[in-house]
Write a structure and sequence with these properties.
By secondary structure, the protein is an all-beta fold. The chain has one domain: 6 Propeller (Neuraminidase), CATH 2.120.10. The protein is 2% helix and 49% strand. Strands 1-24-23-22-21 form a five-stranded mixed β-sheet, with no helix packed on it. The protein has a four-stranded antiparallel β-sheet with strand order 2-27-26-25, with no helix packed on it. A four-stranded antiparallel β-sheet has the order 3-4-5-6, with no helix packed on it. Strand 23 and strand 24 form a beta hairpin. The longest helix is centred in the first third of the chain and has 6 residues. The two termini are 14 Å apart.
Length: 303
């Protein structure tokens, strides 16, 4: 796959050593990183209205807030496995927890409440990423341990005012990153174990079998993890265990490849409010990188 632009991201800030977790490995670490002891595993970057970058630390149940000048603080800690964040406004986030379901986190009161724990009286298999659509719907993945040998990962939509989610897909080989594009028209899903990005209409005409297309096929690394999209249609894809982020235009054509020199565990991406900077989470060393997107063309300008 040819990328007209290849560049390096610059380190923005790194998890201070004073915030490194030093306890025994959690169950999540034992299953996903056998034999390793992690000081953290950063995922789910999301900005609040003040420009602070929020992150989750999956195995240690922590939520970090990073100020615009790169200062870290532990904003919240609980007995959980947080995976993704979606900003709802007024200090509130939707939070996906691998074992506890979809939660509502109020950063002003440091409180959690449950939005939904499962579907049809069954618990989720193990939640991953989450994204909020312009209509207020929350889209989230339920990958569990799905893969090509067990392509039963699920994609859900939780509509505003509802406490029961809609099951949209149940055949994804590990649905991971999720992004909403086209002004809310499209849902992009990272099918990690298929090394692909799927795309479907947010308002699908057939509620039984939504029309889903293979938007982008990747190779190498573990597969796509976190996704982010700009209002102009640029789609950023963090490729797990490959130390790079791919950027595609609205047609799915490659326009840029961004490397994180010094770490391979590129787990997630998020554009700032203006779409000028792309922030990249690298979990191996707990580093946040960023790349200036001002020179990245959109659409026909990329050709």
């Amino acid at each position: 796959m040819y990328f007209p632009i290849t560049t390096d991201a610059e380190p923005f800030t790194q998890l201070p050593q004073a915030l490194h977790a030093r306890g025994a490995p959690s169950e999540w670490e034992r299953v996903t990183r056998p034999g390793m002891k992690l000081h953290s595993f950063l995922e789910g970057p999301e900005f609040d209205d003040a420009g602070n970058l929020w992150l989750v630390d999956v195995p240690n149940g922590r939520l970090f807030s990073i100020s615009p000048d790169g200062e870290w603080r532990v904003a919240f800690s609980y007995a959980g496995e947080p995976h993704g964040l979606a900003w709802l406004g007024d200090g509130v986030f939707a939070l996906t927890d691998y074992r506890q379901g979809v939660l509502r986190f109020d950063s002003k009161t440091s409180s959690l409440e449950t939005l939904c724990r499962g579907v049809n009286s069954e618990s989720f298999r193990g939640l991953g990423d989450i994204a909020r659509a312009p209509d207020g719907a929350l889209w989230f993945g339920d990958p569990g341990r799905s893969s090509l040998s067990d392509p039963t990962g699920r994609l859900f939509r939780l509509r505003p005012g509802h406490d029961k989610p809609d099951l949209v897909l149940n055949n994804v080989p590990y649905p991971n990153g999720i992004a909403i594009g086209g002004g809310g028209a499209y849902v992009y899903v990272a099918a990690t174990r298929a090394n692909a990005i799927w795309r479907l209409m947010a308002q699908w005409p057939d509620p039984v079998h939504p029309m889903v297309g293979l938007h982008i096929q990747l190779s190498g690394g573990l597969g796509p993890d976190g996704l982010a999209v700009t209002s102009g249609g640029l789609l950023a894809v963090a490729q797990a265990q490959a130390g790079r982020v791919h950027v595609f235009d609205a047609l799915g054509d490659p326009v840029a490849k961004i490397h994180t020199r010094g770490g391979l565990w590129t787990t997630a991406v998020r554009f700032d409010a203006a779409g000028r900077w792309l922030y990249i989470t690298e979990a191996e060393h707990g580093t946040i990188y960023r790349a200036d997107m001002a020179g990245i063309p959109v659409g026909a300008d990329a050709k």
